[in-house]
């Protein structure tokens, strides 16, 4: 199943449009995506697996592969490092994002297949499907949903499911 996130802040959840947050830099062609630009890459990105914080509920209902995260889990965002766009254990000698966050947006994280096979240094890392902030503030390039909507998406998702990021003007075309 493919879930489409539109550049106007809506995601098609099995025929129902729900609110989503995308990158503060808007949407950009995947070939033009760069580390730190804050843009969400246009394209179709398979959901590789679901990471979840076990202290914030049980294993989420999904047919996707699932993996718990812990306080020492990170994600390398240093383009010059061999672990770029890969999970790492913190502390890590290069720049890495903390997965166990106080703001709780990573309590549920769908790892999207952007720039991962193999990662190309500088073309963007940590493009995730995760929980939105209460005000739906823009992300650093990810797709974010309210918890009930993300949980509904996860119940529908399984191997082969993907997030498509598209321009809103394509919806009516």
Task: Describe the protein's architecture and organization.
- With 173 residues, this protein is mainly β.
- It has one domain (2-167): L,D-transpeptidase catalytic domain-like, CATH 2.40.440.
- It has one helix spanning 147-156; strands at 2-6, 10-13, 16-21, 27-29, 40-52, 66-68, 73-76, 87-89, 96-98, 108-112, 128-131, 143-145, 162-166.
- The longest helix has 10 residues, at 147-156.
- It is globular.
- The two termini are 21 Å apart.
- The relative contact order is 0.29.
Count of runs of 4 or more consecutive helical residues:
1
Query: What is the approximate shape?
Result: globular
Domains (count): 1
**Main sheet characteristics:** 8 strands, mixed, barrel
Topology overview:
Blueprint: E1 2-6, E2 10-13, E3 16-21, E4 27-29, E5 40-52, E6 66-68, E7 73-76, E8 87-89, E9 96-98, E10 108-112, E11 128-131, E12 143-145, H1 147-156, E13 162-166
Parallel strand pairs: 1-13, 4-5, 5-6, 11-12
Antiparallel strand pairs: 1-2, 2-3, 3-12, 5-10, 5-13, 7-8, 7-9, 10-11
């Amino acid at each position: 199943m493919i879930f489409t996130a539109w550049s106007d802040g809506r995601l098609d959840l099995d025929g129902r449009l729900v609110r989503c947050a995308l990158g503060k830099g808007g949407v950009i062609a995947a070939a033009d995506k760069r580390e730190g630009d804050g843009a969400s890459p246009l394209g179709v990105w398979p959901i590789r697996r679901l990471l979840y914080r076990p202290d914030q509920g049980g294993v989420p209902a999904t047919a996707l592969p699932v993996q718990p995260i812990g306080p020492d889990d990170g994600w390398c965002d240093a383009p010059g490092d061999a672990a770029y766009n890969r999970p790492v254990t913190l502390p890590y000698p290069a720049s890495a994002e903390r997965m166990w966050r106080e703001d709780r947006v990573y309590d549920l994280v769908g790892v999207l297949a952007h720039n991962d096979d193999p990662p190309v240094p500088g073309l963007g890392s940590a493009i995730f499907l995760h929980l939105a902030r209460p005000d739906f503030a823009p992300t650093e390039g990810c797709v974010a949903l309210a918890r009930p909507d993300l949980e509904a998406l996860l119940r529908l998702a399984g191997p082969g499911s993907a997030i498509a990021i598209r321009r809103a003007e394509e919806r009516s075309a």
